[in-house]
Amino acid sequence: MEYFFNFDKFAYLKGKRPEGCILCLIRENSPDVTNMVVYRNSHIGISLNLYPYNPGHLLIFPLRHTEDIRQLGTEERLALDAGLDKALSVLDGLYTPAAYNIGYNMGPVAGASINHLHMHVIPRYPREIGIAELLAGKRVLVEDLAVTRERMTAAFTALSDE
């Protein structure tokens, strides 16, 4: 069996990261982290994943630091749910995926590499593995993250005005 290996993600997991919680630093607009936020309100932020599985891979997170979904207040839960609805509408409009993987990884053993609760929204497409990926043994992203951020920010802004 062959494995996909993302060296940037590996370096991140092995400790090459800024001090403190990544999502809290993003919340505070710290220059120490790459900020890929495409939407924010008083309870949540929605950001592109810096190591996306597919174009449009989003993280939806409460602005208040918590590691456990059971610690969320009612308003935060409602805001996360409403954020998911917005995210799906934006992704449907920009990328028309065939399906989604949506979920939380709570704790390192579950796959969480960020100790701040966040929901993954991963668009899925038919025939995701292309010939370039098979030959190169790597995943090909079809859109630069900066372009994705610009397109999504505009789409979230337009959706928020409705």
Automatic annotation (TrEMBL):
Gene3D superfamilies: HIT-like
Molecular-function GO term, any one: catalytic activity
Span of domain HIT: 22-131
InterPro entries given in the database record: AP-4-A_phosphorylase, Histidine_triad_CS, HIT-like, HIT-like_sf
UniProt short sequence motif Histidine triad motif, positions renumbered to this chain: 116-120
Annotated protein name in UniProt: HIT domain-containing protein
Source species: Breznakiella homolactica
